[in-house]
Specification:
The protein has a single domain, classed as 3-Layer(aba) Sandwich (Bit1). 30% of the residues lie in helices and 18% in strands. It has eight helices and nine strands. The strands form two sheets. Strands 1, 2, 3, 4 and 5 form a five-stranded mixed sheet that branches. Strand 3 and strand 4 form a beta hairpin. The radius of gyration is 17 Å and the shape is globular. It starts with a helix and ends in an 11-residue tail after the last strand.
Length: 256
Amino acid sequence: MVFADRHRMLADYVGGGTDPEDPTRILAMPIVLRIEKATPPPRRGLLEAAARAAVLLCLDERVDVDPDSAVPGPWHEPVHSWMDARIRKISRRARGAGWVAAQEVWGVTVDTGAAAARAIVPCPVGEVDRRIAKLQISGTEVDGDLSGASAGDAEDLTLWVNPGLSMTVGKLAAQVGHAAMLAVGLYDPDEAYRWWVAGAPLQVTMAEPDHWRRLSAADPATVAVVRDAGYTEVAPGSTTVIARRRDLTDLDRLSR
């Protein structure tokens, strides 16, 4: 398996996998958000770190099958099994020693200095590494405004958040992680490779209501849309995030 295969794995994802009868066997990717009590990160920065960590894990070489020996990398089976089921993510918060311990578990960390998140290799929810399982799920919240331009306003990829939904930062971290993964399909393999090498730069921004309506009306080939299953916080089928590349689809013309 080479990068083009990893690109295809994400670009071809259509969802709809079934869950096992045993709920402890449901596969999920833990997303660990670093939220220090004394110095909480900005909301936007934390979400951008989470989105990048999720997609960078999926595009990591450890997901490969060695083209010479045909030996799968250590992350090949867990990532592909998870993709064949459903791209569920569960956000957890960590600080201090808990954050340090999370670095010892297979995964990818994105640390921007202002915010950090670590995506953990997917596994059954009943078999989460104890260093991750002990981290809290509830209460994952930080302040910050997602409206207007971000520090990454010049980035090619924007993950637009639905302004009509209220979601905690933990819920939204999972949603932007989904969006970043699906957005790989907006790039051809060569473009995606360059984006991956650059560290998957992106920005997370709250859409204005009018802009959200135009995004929702865009050609489906030019956007990546996240529709939530509705297990927590939002109704089933809710569109939570829409990913769009800067150089695709002039959305302003849709409002004329």
